[in-house]
Amino acid sequence: MSLYTHVTDLPRYQPNPLFEADAYKTGHKKQYPAGFERAYANLTPRSFKRLRDISPYPDAVKGVVFGVHDAIIELVTNWHDNFFSQPFDDVINPYTDMINAGLGGRTTVDSKHVCELHALGKVPLKFWVLDEGTEFNEGIPLYVVSNTDERFAWFTNYIEDQLSADIWKYLTVASISRMYWDVVVRAHLRHCKAGDFINLKLAPRAHSLIRQIMNVQIHDFSLRGLAGRHDGARTGASVMLYTAGSDNLSAANYIVQTRDQPWSDPIHGPLFQAPPATEHSVMCIRYEMDGEPNTVRDLITKDYPTGMVSIVADTRNYWNFLDVVLPSLRGEILGRPAGPSGPGKVVVRPDSGTPLKVLCGVERQVLFRTVSDDADMSWDEAGAWLLKHARPEFESRLRAFRLDPEGSELHSTHYLVVTSNGRGDYSFHCFTPEAIGSFRPATAEEMGTYETLWKHFGGMVTIDIHGRPIRQINPKVGAIYGDSITPKVADAIFRTASAHCFDPLNVFLGAGSYSFQYLTRDTMATAIKLTSAKVDGAVYSVQKTPQGDTTKHSARGALQVTYDSAGESLVLTQHHDLVQEDLDSGEYGGQLLKPLNLDEYTAERQGGFMELRTEVQDLVIIQALDEQRKGQV
Fold it and tell me: Which of 242-251, 341-350, 468-477 has the lowest mean pLDDT?
């Protein structure tokens, strides 16, 4: 018998949904009052305080409904496959054994109600749910659930742990993915007209080059740091709601299977995009065999002679790779044509260090030119050069030097050097011919990745909507940094690159498990609470109101969610004398918590994921445009 065969014969975990609950819930059936026939509970993210702490734009933070519908489907499927479809003894006996062993025996907990549930043969629940992709503020319920059989009012809250555990994280991750998209949108709005990249169904994204690039500027690298394979698939799907850039194959497969979504369509393009890329194991082996320059040459000319290829560049010395190895292959790089993986582009990937410094540099030289009567650059030429290659205000500062050379200590035989600290702050330095030797040219590490790529490969200078020059690095080269990129770090990189007059289209960033795993249920304070109950035909509106912490106050009664009068934000109305079914009538208009027909739900979710992605992306663009008009972007 082989080891493999032996392993497959080992006992394996068989889920039993009866056990997917806190132990104390097994006794609640006994604790509820006699005549308890209906329970109504809701899930609500109660506070965005911790979520706002993650964002560089806390006032723009919104929650996004995602994963709720998936969790409901998985709940029903789990109970069907692992409880109702299993032999009675196989699911009930372990439950009674557990009670006798750890919960005080039958004198404390009865199992009769569980036997009745198995005999029923289906999940006795109904849901009212907000549509997937809906944006919401804190305090808005995302679903209401109630039992459909009076015998199983206890079951409404028995499944609280299952739904909470399967919803809070993916809801939170989608909301953080929205933050990243918001950062990308704001970076482009500083330079572009909205019409260059917006898609309101009138200009499909596939027709906008800028929009296509924006759609992959944030790339998901989080899979290996997530909580298992299933979590990896669902977390990655939540990220993919706002970006097509992803290396998470399980996430793409999850969307294709659960939404019956095609891998690509002619309007929206591919579901996800990831170029061929190396990792350190590849580079370490090939460096030992062939050396660094030969390895990179073979990668870009033999292994991937066309299209895009991403090379991890810090296996040895990143700055030598960027400043020596890559320029030595300039001819090969510039000669690579487009291919199935995209444009003929070589992407370098630094994987260590401080992201902002690695990409944008530290104290570095922006201009190192002679300004003298007999130099190869006149005052006017120097001013034109500054305007073309650096920031516009340099020209006015240069003119100030010209108008008052005595006061500025700048004479016709002196040298002018402009430096930046990598945060958008610039300084002018004047040197005599004798002292200029002490001011050395900046190193690649001081200049940063973008400036070094510009130095060796050049690019194109264009003028943005504000009349400012912006530099687009040669499209044959690029960079992506995928380590420690939080929304705040991403925003700082975009802003600093912009301050150095680099087009935001140059910036590609990878988001990892720090952003999508370093979270808790408290990030959005998500909780499930009872709001109303029916006992012997009487309706009771109930509410949790702990003194001293209003953030933990729950809603009360039947819950109605509608848009405000401006049609922009969701508002909650609580009806203390009604039950949830009463709000289904036409008398209460605008209700966004819609009844969910579990029998037809699969058909309702066929396809549409990429259309949904475009819609939620556009909503963020519209909101950022509104802030721009108010001068807040």
Answer: 468-477
Q: How far is CA 579 from CA 45, 336, 424, in A?
A: 22, 66, 58
Q: Identify any residues that bridge with 560 across adjacent strands, giving them in sequence order.
A: 573
What are the tens digits of pLDDT across the range 424-477?
A: 444 555 555 555 445 556 788 888 999 899 889 988 878 777 777 788 899 999
Q: Is 624 helix (H, G, I), strand (E, B) or coil?
A: helix
- Find the angle CA(444)-CA(354)-CA(524) to the nearest 5 degrees: 150
Q: CA-to-CA distance for 574 and 577, rounded, in angstroms?
A: 9
| Mutual angle of helices 249-259 and 229-239, in 10-degree steps | 80
Alpha carbons within 13 A on the beta-carbon side of 411: 5
Strands 143-147 and 125-129 turn out to be antiparallel
Whole-number pLDDT of residue 424: 46
Q: Where are the alpha helices (DSSP H) in 433-511?
A: 444-447, 449-457, 487-499
Residue 136: which residues within 8 A CB-CB, separation 6 or more?
45, 62, 63, 64, 65, 130, 142, 570
Instruction: Label residue 319 left, alpha or beta by phi (over 0 means left) and psi (-120 to 50 means alpha).
Output: alpha
- Cα separation, 290 vs 286, in Å, equals 6
- Please report the pLDDT score of residue 416 as a whole number: 54
Q: Give DSSP secondary structure letters for 369-409.
A: EE-STTSSS-HHHHHHHHHHHS-THHHHHHHHHHH-HHHHT
pLDDT tens readout for residues 170-208? 999 999 999 999 999 999 988 876 666 665 444 444 447
Q: 3-class SS at 79?
A: helix
Rounded CA-CA distance 567/590 in Å is 11
Burial class (CB in 10 A: 0-12, 13-18, 19+), 559: buried
Tokens standing for residue 339 = 């291919």
When pLDDT is averaged across residues 377-386 and rounded to a whole number, the result is: 49
Torsion angle, CA of 479/484/486/488, rounded to 10 degrees? -80
- Per DSSP, the three-state class of 589 is coil
Residue 520 carries which side chain, given as an amino acid letter? Answer: T
pLDDT exceeding 90 applies to what percent of the chain? 59
Q: Is the pTM of this model over 0.90?
A: no
